[in-house]
Structures are given as structure tokens and as C-alpha cells.
């Protein structure tokens, strides 16, 4: 019997070995994938930098309001006092309507400029980037024009006729810029903006051009997007209170007149207030000119064309603004900010109001050329 058993061929275990090897390869692949994913997440965290913890004075003051744990409205004296005592900084609140507290968080962070994208629908201006929500709470009037008027009213209860006080107590003559980005047809949208500004116009709160000089007010309206420059020029030439956002990368124009002692520019303080361009078109240095390229005599036109964007805007009396500035990685963002602030750029576009507050005093003193 034992001999017979010995002659019986034992089953080969190759299939079992193959199965074990496959499991081993699968385990190695899974572990490698997990490690790669973990490394990718870690690299993303490093490039993204540290996350801001909402714990600054603004966050602490408005925490109960944001979390709806209080019966106080935004017009509570404590909230308004905080906003009016913010330190103004040369920052533009980009897509302001998307923030936790549109308008109020920007002002409470010290921003001197806010942006509202508007869509015209059935004689109403709705605020939003792509498709504005059509409800009363999201109108330009409800979100910006009426609150701004109410805040300026509160600051001007005891001023003399002809004088005014802005929103910021620490800079009472600092105007607030409301940049209205026209997302729908320019002429019709601009006409509705013009009509809705009447309550602010009636109390003389708007910056305007009187035919010979620009008269500053606590609120300056600037039109951009689909707003046509020709429609801005067609406004009342002795009381133009909507200004254009001029193209900073294309300020010199064939219509500029360099033949007189007082140069005449197409974009100037009578029709424009800002001059903006995206970051990738930035040119803070003059065009390089080599000796063999110099004309025998540099004309006024040559000097203007070869000048830096900042100098071109300054000669026209316009405030410069760069948008789409790199946000990540943080070291690139910081270099970009430092470079622009150091060169005297009028406004920096910002999305994160927490970062604005964290760097409030690091942005430098607000210097706006109002004359």
C-alpha cells in the first residue's frame, strides 16, 4: 500500500505560487499608489502654504453675525464702528460679491475699492459673475448703492455744505471706488447704472468732472467690462460722474495730441479714473532703448510710448490697477505684491480679505492722486 501511495504523483502547487505572487504584486501596487497620493497631497499643502485661521479682530467681531448667533443686523453700532475705524489700504476687493459679507468685509478690511459684476434684466441690475441670481437681495441697489449711501450719510451728519467725509475715520478724504463690471450690453447697462445713481447724485456724494476739473466725493463710480468708452464720453460733460477703466497696456492712442504745451490724452481725468491690465501684460519698466536706436530728438510722443505703464498712467492722472496677480505659490505671490507696491501701483486686486487684514500695515500708506 505504501508503495502504491509513493507511486501516486503529488499535485503540482504552481497555481498556488502564481496566486500568491499576484497578491504580492497587487499589494505593492496599492501601497505605492497610496504613497504617491500622500506625497502629492503633501506637496500641494507645501505649495499652498499655511491656511489662515479665522481669528483676527474682524473675525472675532463679526463671528456671531456670520454664524447667525445674534439678533443684531449689520447696521449695529459696534459693527459699523469697526468698519469706519479700519485702516485704509490700496487694495481692490476682486469679485467682492462672492465674499462672506459683500462690501462690508472689504471695507472692514480697509479696501478702498470694491468690484460688482452686473447683469441687466428687465430694468434691474443683478450682481453676479456669470448668471446673476435674479432676486431682490442680489441687486446693485441692495448690495452696494443703498448700503454705501447709508454709511456715508452716517459720516456726514455734521459737515458743512460743500464739504464731505468719507467712510474711513483715519482717512476722511479717501474716496471709495465702486468698480461696476458690465457683463451685459454696454449702452443699456450703463444707462441703468446712470439712473440708479440718482439718489447718490442728489446728495452730492459722487466724484464728478465739472468741465474744468475733477471734484472728488466720498464715492467714485468706475465702469469696466462691456461699458463702451463712447458712452462715457457722451455723459454730461459738466457733470460726468461715471468714469472709465482705461486699458493700462494700451494707454497711448493715435488720438493723443502731443503738439501743444499741455498734452491732450484720449484717456484723462475728465473721462477715466482707473487704468487696469492683467498681470501678464505688466510692464513697470520703460522699453529698453539702445544708443543706435535713439532718434536724433525724442519727441513727446516718443517719450510717452517708451515710458513705463506707471509713468503713462501718472501723466494722465489715472490710478493703476493690476488684476489676475499670481496667488500661489506664496513666495511668488509675495514677490509680485512687494514689487508692485514698491513701484507705487495704485491698487492691487485681492480675493482673500483675511490676507489683506493680516498684511494691513504692510501695504504702505494709501496715496491717491485726486487732483
Helices and strands, with pairings:
Layout lengths: L1 H6 L6 H35 L8 H10 L10 H8 L4 E5 L10 H5 L2 E11 L2 E4 L12 H16 L20 E7 L3 H11 L1 H5 L5 E2 L4 E2 L3 E7 L3 H5 L8 E6 L24 E7 L21 H7 L2 H7 L3 E5 L6 H13 L4 E4 L2 H6 L13
Parallel strand pairs: 1-2, 1-11, 2-4, 4-7, 7-8, 8-9, 9-10, 10-11
Antiparallel strand pairs: 2-3, 5-6
Write a compact overview of the structure shown.
With 371 residues, the chain is α/β, with parallel strands linked by helices. It is 36% helix and 16% strand.
Write up this protein:
The chain is α/β, with parallel strands linked by helices. The protein has one domain (about 45-365): TIM Barrel (Alpha-Beta Barrel), CATH 3.20.20.190. Helices cover about 35% and strands about 15% of the residues. The strands form two sheets. It has an eight-stranded parallel β-barrel with strand order 1-2-4-7-8-9-10-11, surrounded by four helices. Strands 5-6 form a two-stranded antiparallel ribbon. Strand 5 (about 210) and strand 6 (about 215) form a beta hairpin. The longest helix is centred in the N-terminal third of the chain and has 35 residues, at about 15-50. It is globular. It comes from Aureobasidium pullulans. One of its GO terms (molecular function) is phosphoric diester hydrolase activity. Belongs to the AIM6 family.
Amino acid at each position: 500500500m505504501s508503495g502504491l501511495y509513493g507511486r501516486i504523483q503529488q499535485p503540482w502547487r504552481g497555481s498556488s505560487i502564481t496566486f500568491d505572487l499576484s497578491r504580492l504584486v497587487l499589494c505593492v501596487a496599492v501601497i505605492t499608489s497610496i504613497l504617491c497620493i500622500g506625497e502629492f497631497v503633501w506637496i500641494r499643502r507645501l505649495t499652498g502654504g499655511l491656511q489662515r485661521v479665522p481669528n483676527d479682530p474682524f473675525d472675532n467681531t463679526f463671528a456671531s453675525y456670520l454664524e447667525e448667533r445674534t439678533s443684531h443686523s449689520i447696521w449695529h453700532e459696534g459693527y459699523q464702528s469697526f468698519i469706519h475705524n479700519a485702516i485704509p489700504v490700496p487694495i481692490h476687493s476682486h469679485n467682492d460679491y462672492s465674499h462672506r459679507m459683500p462690501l462690508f468685509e472689504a471695507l472692514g478690511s480697509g479696501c478702498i475699492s470694491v468690484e460688482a459684476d452686473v447683469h441687466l434684466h428687465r430694468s434691474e441690475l443683478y450682481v453676479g459673475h456669470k448668471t446673476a441670481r435674479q432676486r431682490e437681495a442680489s441687486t446693485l441697489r441692495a448690495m452696494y448703492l443703498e448700503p454705501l449711501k447709508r454709511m456715508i450719510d452716517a459720516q456726514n451728519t455734521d459737515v458743512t455744505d460743500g464739504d464731505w467725509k468719507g467712510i474711513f475715520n483715519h482717512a476722511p478724504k479717501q474716496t471709495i471706488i465702486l468698480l461696476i463690471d458690465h457683463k451685459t450690453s454696454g449702452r443699456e447697462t450703463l444707462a441703468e447704472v446712470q439712473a440708479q445713481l440718482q439718489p447718490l447724485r442728489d446728495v452730492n456724494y459722487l466724484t464728478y468732472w465739472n468741465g474744468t476739473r475733477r471734484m472728488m466725493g466720498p464715492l467714485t463710480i468706475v465702469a469696466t467690462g462691456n461699458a463702451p468708452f463712447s458712452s462715457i464720453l457722451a455723459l454730461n460733460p459738466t457733470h460726468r460722474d461715471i468714469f472709465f477703466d482705461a486699458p493700462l497696456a494700451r494707454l497711448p492712442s493715435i488720438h493723443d495730441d502731443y503738439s501743444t504745451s499741455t498734452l491732450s490724452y484720449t484717456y484723462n481725468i475728465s473721462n477715466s479714473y482707473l487704468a487696469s491690465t492683467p498681470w501678464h501684460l505688466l510692464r513697470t519698466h520703460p522699453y529698453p532703448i539702445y544708443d543706435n536706436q535713439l532718434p536724433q530728438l525724442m519727441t513727446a510722443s516718443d517719450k510717452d510710448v517708451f515710458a513705463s505703464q506707471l509713468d503713462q498712467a501718472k501723466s494722465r492722472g489715472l490710478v493703476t490697477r493690476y488684476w489676475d496677480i499670481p496667488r500661489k505659490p506664496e513666495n511668488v505671490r509675495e514677490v509680485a505684491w512687494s514689487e508692485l507696491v514698491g513701484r507705487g501701483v495704485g491698487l492691487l486686486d485681492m480675493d482673500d480679505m483675511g490676507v489683506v487684514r493680516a498684511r494691513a500695515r504692510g501695504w504702505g500708506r494709501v496715496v491717491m492722486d485726486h487732483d
